[in-house]
């Protein structure tokens, strides 16, 4: 029984490690943080509205654009955000 369990654990551990390595590479290439769907888990739990964007996915995008714009302004002023 142990001889069947160890290879399965090794494969599972390897898949998780590869998953995190590829996520890291994707972050380094795109330089964008990971983001979830608008209210994904909240909708599964029965909540009516997304607490972040109020069920308006464009608002989430506009907030991200505003944050990037503010970061650029701060960089131009020589300050870190």
TrEMBL record:
Keyword Transmembrane helix attached: yes
Keywords carried by this UniProt record: Membrane, Transmembrane, Transmembrane helix
Domain of life per record: Bacteria
UniProt cross-references to InterPro entries, sorted A to Z: NqrM
Membrane-spanning parts: 6-29
Entries under Pfam families matching the protein: NqrM
PANTHER family, per the entry: (NA+)-NQR MATURATION NQRM
Name this protein carries in UniProt: (Na+)-NQR maturation NqrM
Organism in which the protein naturally occurs: Psychrobacter piscatorii
């Amino acid at each position: 029984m142990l001889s069947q369990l160890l290879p399965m654990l090794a494969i599972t551990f390897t898949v998780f490690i590869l998953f995190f390595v590829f996520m890291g590479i994707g972050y380094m290439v795109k330089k964008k943080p990971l983001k979830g769907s608008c209210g994904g888990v909240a909708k599964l739990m029965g909540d009516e509205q997304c607490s972040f964007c109020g069920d308006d996915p464009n608002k989430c995008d506009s907030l991200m654009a505003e944050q990037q714009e503010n970061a650029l302004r701060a960089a131009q002023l020589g300050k870190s955000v």
